[in-house]
From TrEMBL:
Entry's Gene Ontology BP terms: fatty acid beta-oxidation
The protein's name in its UniProt record: Methylglutaconyl-CoA hydratase
SUPFAM superfamilies: ClpP/crotonase
Domain of life from the UniProt record: Eukaryota
Lineage: Eukaryota, Metazoa, Spiralia, Lophotrochozoa, Mollusca
Top EC class for this record: lyase
Gene Ontology MF terms in the entry: enoyl-CoA hydratase activity; methylglutaconyl-CoA hydratase activity; RNA binding
Species for this entry: Mytilus galloprovincialis (Mediterranean mussel)
Predominant cellular place of this UniProt entry's protein: mitochondrion
InterPro entries hit by this protein: ClpP/crotonase-like_dom_sf (IPR029045), Enoyl-CoA_hyd/isom_CS (IPR018376), Enoyl-CoA_hydra/iso (IPR001753), Enoyl-CoA_hydra_C (IPR014748)
Amino acid sequence: MATSVLCRVQSLRKDLFLSVSRCSVLLKNNYLVKSNETDECSLEFLEGDNEGIAVISMNRPKAKNSLGKVFLSQFQGCINNVKFEKNIRVLIIRSMVPGVFCAGADLKERAKMTNEEVGPFVAGLRQSVTDLSNIPMPTIAAIDGYALGGGLEMSLACDMRTASSNAKMGLVETKRGIIPGGGGTQRLTRVVGPALAKELIYTARMFDGHEAAKLGVVNHSVDQNDAGDAAYQRAVELALEITPNGPVALRMAKMAISKGSDVDLTSGMGFEECGYAQVIPTKDRIEGMKSFIEKRTPVYKGE
Ligand SMILES: CC(C)(COP(=O)([O-])OP(=O)([O-])OC[C@H]1O[C@@H](n2cnc3c(N)ncnc32)[C@H](O)[C@@H]1OP(=O)([O-])[O-])[C@@H](O)C(=O)NCCC(=O)NCCSC(=O)C[C@@](C)(O)CC(=O)[O-]
């Protein structure tokens, strides 16, 4: 069973407050537990066998999860809250809208903006996607449908991606007379290299989940199931391979790989050294060795 949460009581933002105030809430462990199905983005912490996994669910059916002002504000709220969760070891981003992950920029809302408004709005969108990429724990995007423009950019800001066979992905911005603005020019290039990124962006080509795996855009592709959530199920499986491992180690590995990928090898080794220094004083490091010697499963506490 999942516990849905929106945000910490102490950090309620006005827009989130308005959203929360419309739904039934109760206090639990310092969180406002929500049950408002009209929220465009919500955060939940899985329990039982899936404990340690947080899920951001996108749910804006009428506009195919496109990135409008309200959506982005709620998405940012989810990110702001999950990043401080010491007990969360993996974050999954999924859609609750059948057949679509995210349709990118909200083109109808954008059409009403003046030229002066567009630049700052896209800068905010870019920052939200960057905030997602900077979340300290491992992240997985579960792509069970269309992931276009900003939708694919959002998934590229995650550490890993799973996709279903019916997923359709693409940085289609040039078809709309713009360029990727949520980090796609940079992150797709880092994932597949400049030649392929250029081809995909210049052509605005769309590709399915299996093609995406062949191109290296996603880690795993799976045939879609009757429920339409095969990529999400694969993401949970992947998360469950990660959750038993040392939480501090996971975060330090992410930091070293992410920061190291942007610099030369020698500088990258510096990030590895910094990350390693953080795990040395942890109780989890001792537990890792002790459990091996005692021939039992380690119990990590993130300390
Ligand atoms: C996703 C499919 C294939 C589904 O295709 P479909 O299943 O045939 O559904 P549909 O096209 O009938 O869409 C259903 C409803 O969702 C709406 N809708 C759907 N997408 C959007 C959208 N983006 N913005 C606003 N509304 C959208 C659409 O207008 C329609 O509303 P209705 O006509 O029923 O009132 C199709 O709808 C589609 O092609 N959508 C547009 C995809 C697209 O071009 N996205 C923008 C990319 S540019 C970008 O993301 C820019 C960025 C982020 O990098 C930088 C920046 O912010 O500028």
